[in-house]
Amino acid sequence: MNFHRRISIARYRYGEQLWGIGLSAPAFILMILLMLGPIALTMLLSLTDWQLGMGNFSWIGLKNYESAVNDPIFWKSLFNTSVYVAVVMTGSIGLGLLLALMINQLSFGKGFYRTLFFLPVMASLVAMTIVWEFLLHPEFGLINQLLTALGGTPNNWLRDEDWALAALCVIGIWHQAGFNMVLFIAGLTAIPKFLYEAADIDGVPPGFSRFRHITWPLLGPVTLFIVVMTAIKAFQVFDTVQILTQGGPSYSSEVLLLTIYKEGFEYFRTGYAAALTVVFLTLVILVTVVKSLFLEKKVKYT
């Protein structure tokens, strides 16, 4: 009896496994076709000299990567991308946290301000970029008019080598701060209220002390998620650069995705563009690895 029962249980578990495989197979196949397949194809293309439209190609090994190492434009775009990611991450996370703390303290009007600061996230980035182009216009732009009214000197922000990348960073911070704000508000809502009540009993003064000892440590998980997501979004900057500066002037605002686009679809050096894409994917993966190996260990989960 026990033997037949074990056989029945084994068959039942085997059937469950088959059902699980069958139900997950469509998602697994789509993941291969839409994610792993293109990545593998890109890596193979990076080892060839294929150009868009060519009927044949040759295997050239790592020569595309050697060309990237010796390409000053690649290093310039990599440097600009790193600066952009660092500035936008710091600015949008800091501003998002500040807005969340301020809105969370309001007794009324929270919904209005959440909606107001979240509007840049919901709006089309291309449309908002065109608005920023008018705001930054050297002659009739609102920013230069305000500077003139305050006694300052107007500037051609998007055509100035010293200010083009900074202007793009400001737009990136403006665009991502609202999303980070909403996530921080969710994190603040999840903090138990009795901890602040205990702080009152223990005599912990309101303000920075409570933020340091209670709020900030308990925001660790959501902050980690925001850091990773903001970094990945910042690495993907393309639309604003393509519309506003096209990487100029003198490559002062050239970013990695724009370089990949130019190499692949303007100069038709598809193999070289694939090599740059592999470098880009490696950077994004490194962000995830750093998050898993280092940052996550310092986060306290309640």
UniProtKB/TrEMBL annotation:
Cellular component GO terms held in the UniProt record: plasma membrane
One example of a Gene Ontology biological process annotation: transmembrane transport
Membrane-crossing residue ranges in chain numbering: 21-47, 83-103, 115-135, 163-186, 218-238, 272-294
Gene3D superfamilies (UniProt xref): MetI-like (1.10.3720.10)
Subcellular location: Cell membrane
UniProt cross-references to CDD domains, sorted A to Z: TM_PBP2
Main location: membrane
UniProt-listed InterPro entries: ABC_transporter_permease, MetI-like, MetI-like_sf
A Pfam family recorded for this sequence: BPD_transp_1
Residue span(s) of domain ABC transmembrane type-1: 78-291
Keywords: Cell membrane, Membrane, Transmembrane, Transmembrane helix, Transport
Membrane topology reported for the UniProt record: Multi-pass membrane protein
Family in the record: Belongs to the binding-protein-dependent transport system permease family.
PANTHER family registered for this protein in UniProt: ABC TRANSPORTER PERMEASE PROTEIN, INNER MEMBRANE ABC TRANSPORTER PERMEASE PROTEIN YCJO
Name recorded for this polypeptide: ABC transporter permease
Species this protein is from: Vreelandella aquamarina
